[in-house]
Design goal:
This protein has 384 residues and is α+β, with helices and mostly antiparallel strands. The chain has three domains: 62 residues, no CATH class; 87 residues, Pdz3 Domain (Roll); 188 residues, 2-enoyl-CoA Hydratase, Chain A, domain 1. The chain is built from eleven helices and 21 strands. The strands form five sheets. Strands 5, 6, 7, 8, 9 and 10 form a six-stranded antiparallel β-sheet that branches. α9 packs parallel to α10. InterPro entries: ClpP/crotonase-like_dom_sf (IPR029045), CtpA/B_N (IPR055210), PDZ (IPR001478), PDZ_6 (IPR041489), PDZ_sf (IPR036034), Peptidase_S41A (IPR004447), Tail-specific_protease (IPR005151).
Length: 384
Amino acid sequence: MISKKKAIIWGSILVLITSLITVNVQLVLGDRVLVSREVFDEYNKFSKMYSLKKVIEKNYYTKVKEEDLVNGAIKGLFEGLNDPYSQYMTKEEFKDLMEYTEGSYSGIGVIVTPGEDGFITVVSAIEDTPGFRAGIKPGDKIVKVNGKNVTAKEMDKAVSMMKGKAKTKVTLTIARENKKTFDLTIKREKIRLKTVKSQVLEDNIGYIRITMFDKKTADDFKQNLKELQSKNIKGLIIDLRDNPGGLLDQCKEIADELLGEGIIVYTKDNKGNKEYLKSDSNKIDIPLALLVNEGSASASEILSGAVRDNKAGVLIGTTTFGKGLVQTVKDLRDGTGFKLTIAQYFTPNGEYIHGKGIKPDIVVEKVEDQLPKAIEYIKSKIGQ
């Protein structure tokens, strides 16, 4: 007979597995319950998992924690999607994610993604963080953390290993384009990300750098833009290079300031339903250029595609990262949570950029030439 505690735990797994089905208990008879045929049939689909759990508990060479088996079973459910952006997170992992979107955590400041080749791939090293100063580049593969081999399937574990108390050190083994590996020992810091910076360049051209989109980015962007406009800038350059993305609502608010009335992006779910995200009538009335590169991903690409397709400005630099999938993040009652890809997104003109990125209007390969080219473009448009 199954103990009440175990019945509750494994019943919870089955509820998640069956897409959060609400189980209507029909009758309770002592330690037994009568359920509908539909619920019973769903349970039978996963009876093998429960049977194997019993085998493990009885025969594994050392004592196992039931909580670890539960977490492993649920993680396996998400891994079965073969989607690197969908994942179940333990309490600690979900807490880390929430801290990151708040814009403050202790670590090295490197944004990673599961690569299709099975390696943990760097999207970008955030400006003014230990990883950035150590020379980590987009496209680098992290193959070891503190001497332990890591793969894309263990990305959450690897990220946890890279984080830690400020002033402590972590050693990463990096593989670059030439496939040769090398070690970088980096001292962790308490990172409070300042995601928006601005200045006035030559000929009164405004420059705004956005390093990522966290909960404060849109407000900071508006404040910086207001200050630049008070100085009567004649054109604007927005730098999205190595910006790994972030929160879509922050991207939407920034697009509102740039596009005028139009479509920012639209999504399509598994039923073919389309949902359009639109901007209002606000629009800056000065020439606009966006700097992008292979480290510009997700929300950065949404903003870039919106500016390009609405003809609000031009893109300058190199082809972007290519992430065209939308995730939802949900917290569960016990403090755990999950990310799930729920839709594809398309630029206003209907382009699906996943896996290929966005090619700029003006391609400039050399990093040192990109900003000068943007300044040159703005100058050519001033006064027209």
